[in-house]
Amino acid sequence: MVRVIPEFGTEWKSNKYMDAYYGVSASATAPTGYTAYDPESGFEDISFRLTSFYDLNHQWQLIMRGEAKLLFSEAKNAPFIVQDGDSFQGLFGVGVLYTF
Questions:
Q1: Which among 4, 11, 44, 63 has most CB atoms closer than 10 A?
Q2: Is the confidence at residue 86, as pLDDT, over 70?
Q3: Do residues 39 and 17 make contact, with C-beta atoms less than 8 angstroms apart?
């Protein structure tokens, strides 16, 4: 039996989170020539995931997951992020699951 679960989502991040991961203080950028960056709170990204489960037998399953994520402006505009192409991020994973 095969089961497929589609997921669509976005993540809201607080100002404190965005500053910790994407912010850069003026003292940190002084020797580099970059400007300071203080991102606001907001949506960090939008994503689509597709997870599938394939039953090998009654205890073992094969799991596959693919994800496409697109960063939004507050995250992708951080000065230390060098954009080569677009702000798309992809992920693919395969695993096995054993049920007791």
A1: 44
A2: no
A3: no
